[in-house]
Amino acid sequence: MMTFGKDASARYLVPRLEGKRSIVLVTGRTSYAVCGAEAFLSPFLAQKNIVHLTTVGENARAEDVAEKKSQLPEHVDAYIAVGGGTVIDTTKLLRGLEGELPPFLAVPTTAGTGAETTRFAVYYEQGKKMSADDVRYLPTDQLLIPEFTATQTPYQRASTEFDAYAQAVESLWAVGATDESRSFAQKALSLMAAGEQMLGSYWAGRAIDISRTTAAHALSYYMTATYGIPHGHAVYMMFPYVCKANGRDEFIKDVPELQTLREFAEVKGLDWDKLVAALLANVNPTRLANNPMPITRELFG
Predict the structure, then answer these.
(1) DSSP codes of every residue in 130-176
(2) Do residues 234 and 213 lie in contact, with contact meaning Cβ atoms separated by under 8 Å?
(3) What's the pTM value of the predicted model, to 2 decimals?
(4) Cα separations (Å) of 258 from 36, 161, 163, 232, 254?
């Protein structure tokens, strides 16, 4: 169930949390307080037995999940994740360890990953990017409160918002797309164009939950794993080449806050041919197969 705005979310929380005593709350280390989510949620969590876990770094990590597993109480009535994709994906993996799945409330503080409405849990294991795909990871409820995104830096906002845009576009051409996923993608693009970024991100997430992502995401994982480029920015670096491959140049988008792949290579002094070869050698084959056209070395010039 998706609930939008503070007033609707407050009305939602009271009956849904009634009778739930043991709650696992997963947040970022500082974002929970800084973005205003803590002040909003604290009255609803008073008198509850809260196990508050915080995540570290830009991406969910298998070793972090394993460490947090030991901190889980014997019985959990509900999971609440408040944060970006890292927080929500970490919570998905923790809750997925349960035999019977308790309710799972996702409260995003970025408007871009769509993690609050997908069955995917992206994480790193020994430096390698992994993507778990199971309905067990799907949050049962979402609170979308745009005010919680206000403290993002311009770079964070640009990166996460481009991720949502790319998800919607990739859902239009994905081999696995359906009429329903395309309608969700079109709705996402229309909302984002109208400035409704959080709702647009939600519908982009709904779209890729059906269609899955394609080559832009498949290629991006190497940049994140090797150079620590945040996910949305890494997708941006790959996106123009994938648009060209698919004959859809009209979707290429310039985002001044984000370096292009060529600019990044020049700043870092990287050999272009070696970088492209590494990208193609380390591409995610599942996501690549969902792209309608092949990705070749010639696309990169």
Answers:
(1) EEEE-GGGS-SEEEE-GGGGTT--HHHHHHHHHHHHHHHHHHHH-TT
(2) no
(3) 0.91
(4) 27, 11, 12, 10, 8
- pLDDT of 126 higher than 90: no
Q: Do 253 and 162 meet the contact criterion of CB atoms below 8 Å apart?
A: yes
Check residue 123 and report its DSSP letter. E
Alpha carbons 282 and 96: distance in angstroms, whole number:
28
The C-alpha torsion from 71 through 76 and 80 to 81, rounded to 10°, is 40
Closest by Cα among 299, 155, 6, 184 to 192: 184
Reported as a single tens digit per residue, the pLDDT across 134-154 is 999 999 999 999 999 999 999
Between strands 128-133 and 120-125, the pairing is antiparallel
**Residue 150, both tokens:** 């206000």
Residues facing 52 on adjacent strands: 25
* Residue at token pair 């996910």: 231
In which band, very low, low, confident or very high, does the pLDDT at 55 lie, cut at 50, 70 and 90?
A: very high
Band of residue 128 on the pLDDT scale cut at 50, 70, 90: confident
Checking if the pLDDT of 37 tops 80, the result is yes
Contacts for 183 with CB less than 8 Å, ≥ 6 apart:
none
